[in-house]
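Can't attach files on this board, so I'm pasting raw text. These are the components:
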Amino acid sequence: MRTRKTPNSQHPVSPAEARSLIRAGEWTGNTAGVAPGYAQANLAILPGELAFDFLLFCQRNPKPCPVLEGLEPGTWETRIAARGADIRTDLPAYNVYEKGRLKATVGDITGQWQDHFVTFLIGCSDSFEEALLRANVPVRHIEEGRNVPMYITNIPCVPAGVFRGPMVVSMRPVPHRLVTRAVQITGRYAQVHGAPVHIGEPQAIGIRDIAKPDFGDAVSILPGETPLFWACGVTPQAVAMEVKPDICITHAPGHMFITDLLNEGLAGS
Amino acid sequence: MRTRKTPNSQHPVSPAEARSLIRAGEWTGNTAGVAPGYAQANLAILPGELAFDFLLFCQRNPKPCPVLEGLEPGTWETRIAARGADIRTDLPAYNVYEKGRLKATVGDITGQWQDHFVTFLIGCSDSFEEALLRANVPVRHIEEGRNVPMYITNIPCVPAGVFRGPMVVSMRPVPHRLVTRAVQITGRYAQVHGAPVHIGEPQAIGIRDIAKPDFGDAVSILPGETPLFWACGVTPQAVAMEVKPDICITHAPGHMFITDLLNEGLAGS
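---
Top answer:
Structure tokens for the assembled complex are below.
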């Protein structure tokens, strides 16, 4: 009888092994902590007629929308973010939206695939959180076992074609004496959101109640800490959904695409 | 009688003034030194059916293809690189190519414009040359009054759709003791080619004879100098021409689009 490793922090697997387990249906859970050291990506699949506008939106808004790989129309095989992965089967769970409404959460989208689909893999702040932790900058939502809190701001993205909308940010509280360090560390990771877009007062970017995030979970902000806000990869998904495309497929929250890209490789040279 | 300023180093004009003179047909010369401090951009206009592949090519090859602005299909008015410029009239000279062959050099392309055209403005190394000069790093081709020498290398670009081809580089010789400084200075300008792609031995990147550039002019390399090679914005034009599009319009060499973007604004934060 063949036994296979189950990915967890005791038994880390390579990205290729993780994708193979997922493709075989042997790993359907969320991908946090799977293949540590490697970047995980948000997924957005759109109808072909929206592809140019969406890529242009990402080009104009690189902080919230860092494209790790865009695929040619109709293509499901990745070449840059991972060698030979199949975008239709290699994520543990997908959300399928029609006209902006969630229709199904599925483990594979081979049946839904259409020839004109265009796929985008978008960077994620998980990549710089590893670097923060290595530098002893605390990451509160990890400490508290929650999802990162995310907020819709009053910062407008630069529109492109049919796409427009506000920037979504993630928030991490940082002790005063470590704020500069956190800026410097994350600023190195220009391909995964980079330095914060705002430091301090939440009201200044249109956040009324820091205890009530629009997505994710609230986390504690301790005395002597400043909230830091980073552009968030949920932005392009939120903006795409506003357009109510006939069909749009994303990863299910927490069930990301595991790339072959080292997080360290996403730091600027 | 109304008199108008003629742009030159004694009488610098603003980017908006320069574009207005050009639009009125009162400035048809090359744009070197016009509106100092402001970025100038390469122009590429392609048929709509090539737009997504071309933007994807630029996304995959950001060092040779730094997009300062991509315009929505059919749009001629810029919004990001310059406020309210008209891409059909605001460059002093355009090259019109059909099936990859130069058909005409014209002062305005209003007559050639088609509704499906998609326009890309691509960053240029002129932007970082100002910074090199400010730091007393010599820029040989400026000293010698020549065009920067450019070479086709054996470094492949990452293909995208129909677009593929080698990287074109520009070369500047730098005294040994200033090589690190030149790397650090240009590395700050990630939006305009960034740090060199190669330092030293030309043969290592497929350049057989440094005295015979593929484009531009040869320049002197003095004893005690190292040749530094930067990714060059001619790359996307060369790659686009290989596809022999039905029609493709570029700026005429040296006759660039003058943006409202400060060169300093193209340095990373």
